[in-house]
Amino acid sequence: MILLSDARELKSHIIKSGYSISGFATQIGVSPATLSLMFNKNAAISPRTAKLIVDELGSNFNDYFQILEEA
Fold it and tell me: Hey, how many other C-beta atoms are within 10 angstroms of the C-beta on 68?
């Protein structure tokens, strides 16, 4: 399971890159609701979506996400 580890830093990076959260979601091809759930509910995120986020921002996966192994 992939979880967001640093929501504040990720939001800041998105904004500094010139996007609103909604605009960023559209740019990477996911629904704004997907990012909203990720930020507000600390919901698990798909590997595909996590990769789209870090690729668009030119970031490292470990900067914002952590992988939790399920028991």
Answer: 10
